[in-house]
Amino acid sequence: MIIQTTCAVIILLTRYDFPVIFTDNELVKKRVSKISVFLCLSILIGGIQPVFSGVAVGAGWQTTVAYINIGCYYLVGLTSAFLMGLRFGLGLEVISVIQLFVIVFHFFTGV
């Protein structure tokens, strides 16, 4: 958890500077800076979710975990991505929002 928090804080504090590592294009820098908050939240929550999933599998709830995974990734994630990406024209933000939404859903369902 310490490594995840450190990485998220570094990315958040340097959200306007770290895109320079990847590109010189101003438009790309601006877009990456815009979605860096979603990246930080995904890093933090994404580190907690596997623990809950592992505990659930270890407790013998493999079937429940499998159904929740299918629901999160395929039913909720793909449907939301399709609607937000094609219907509402959100573009690049869709990937970050959907990833964060699925991770949060996993976090609150406990598996």
TrEMBL record:
Pfam families: MatE. The chain crosses the membrane at residues 37-59, 65-83, 90-108. GO terms for molecular function: antiporter activity; xenobiotic transmembrane transporter activity. Coiled coil: none annotated. It comes from the Eukaryota. The keyword Manganese does not apply. One of its GO terms (cellular component) is membrane. Keywords: Membrane, Transmembrane, Transmembrane helix. The keyword Cytoplasm does not apply. This is Uncharacterized protein. It comes from Acorus calamus.
